[in-house]
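PROTEIN DESIGN WORKSHEET
SECTION A - STRUCTURE
LENGTH: 199
TOKENS:
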């Protein structure tokens, strides 16, 4: 198994790069944002609870997203690897993910951290809000709250993985293709290393 975390603030391009990476490497895409939005569409109790937080630009409680990821891991036993997008977003989520992956006798191979300036993030998200239908992308106040949550609670997650030497920072302001090429090269290097250790 080859598991990747795509990390970065809201609007840093995680979703765009995820789409490219899953089709190239046959990974299962697990986006907690997408999973939560589909619960909201289905109006499940989980979705109704999550919406209260998402509409304010706040993180959804850890136990809710950890439960969702745990279910997703169990329902995809065939996956050759997972691409985590928007998860983990707190230290508690990172610890829970490690435990869940250990149970599956696997781990995170690498975390890619996309770095984008705050001005650029706000511009991109307001722009996306004009067509995405996402209510959290329409108001600059909600966008600023999300970035604040990222600074306070999510950024420290990179330090968690740094301890294990798993973090690679990338400037997230080049073209989509440039960033994709960079990510692909790093993945190839690591896949070779994993294969070499196995054989
Ligand atoms: P973005 O990266 O643009 O913020 P996402 O789709 O990843 O978009 O997340 C949208 C919202 O869903 C977040 O603002 C947050 O409220 C909630 N959310 C998504 N993933 C998590 C998570 N791992 N932990 C807590 N809340 C989450």
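SECTION B - SEQUENCE
RESIDUE ASSIGNMENT:
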């Amino acid at each position: 198994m080859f598991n990747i975390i795509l990390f970065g603030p809201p609007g840093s391009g995680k979703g765009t790069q995820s789409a490219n990476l899953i089709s190239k490497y046959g990974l299962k895409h697990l986006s907690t944002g997408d999973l939560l939005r589909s619960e909201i569409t289905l109006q499940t109790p989980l979705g109704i609870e999550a919406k209260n937080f998402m509409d304010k630009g706040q993180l959804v409680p850890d136990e809710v997203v950890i439960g969702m990821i745990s279910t997703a891991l169990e329902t995809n036993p065939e996956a050759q690897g997972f691409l985590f997008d928007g998860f983990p977003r707190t230290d508690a989520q990172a610890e829970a993910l490690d435990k869940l992956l250990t149970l599956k006798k696997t781990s995170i191979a690498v975390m890619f951290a996309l770095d984008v300036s705050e001005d650029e993030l706000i511009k991109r998200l307001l722009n996306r809000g004009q067509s995405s239908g996402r209510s959290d992308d329409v108001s600059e106040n909600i966008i600023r709250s999300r970035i604040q949550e990222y600074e306070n609670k999510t950024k420290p997650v990179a330090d968690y993985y740094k301890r294990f030497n798993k973090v690679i920072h990338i400037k997230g302001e080049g073209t989509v293709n440039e960033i994709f090429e960079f990510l692909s090269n790093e993945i190839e290097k690591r896949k070779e290393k994993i294969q070499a250790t196995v054989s």
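SECTION C - NOTES
Residues 3-184 form a domain with the Rossmann fold fold (CATH 3.40.50.300).
Residues 57 and 146 are 5 Å apart (CA to CA).
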